[in-house]
What does this fold into?
Amino acid sequence: MDDSVNWDDYLQHAEVSDVGLRRNNNQDAFAVVLANDLEAWHRTGHLFVVADGMGAHAAGELASEMAVSGISHRYHKYQDLSPPEALLRAIEETNDEVHRRGQANVDFYNMGTTTSVLALLPQGALVAHVGDSRVYRMRGLLLEQLTFDHSLVWELQAGGQLTGDPQLASSVPKNIITRSLGPNPTIHSDFEGPFPLEIGDTFLLC
It folds into this structure.
């Protein structure tokens, strides 16, 4: 029985990355892995990964490339696990790999990357992330942020420490993140969902 399917009839996706104006190299990376057939769709769904690297020289670029390739490969390797378990294992093992690579070479020391992952599954959209690369869902006219920034300003706001003091809030640096993949031997990633899918849903990883 042929269970192949043309996903173009059901799913549209687009990817774009730009080096920007401040750097000579692009520290962003992404991966798109669509299910090969219906069996793979029911088992692991479609996977989308975005990473924004951090580190001097080429360290951030290497970290983000290792993140997207490592997570997408390992996620599909653990087919005996549920998708959330496989994704958690993939993120933890990729963090370990990036961390060891950073410790082994002075040029890559303490390199890291944000990472956001979207798995579109029959049971819904599963989101995993570490850092401040956001995942949004547009449904109709409503744009929702599905992730919580792992940044200093967001965590101070969530703890109520910036409430009622706009001067204090404006003084907190916006670019300090509190979690990332790579710098530390262990990692704590957030999981959201699964969110039930509806026709017309649009997801943005950025």
Notes: The two ends are 39 Å apart (CA to CA).
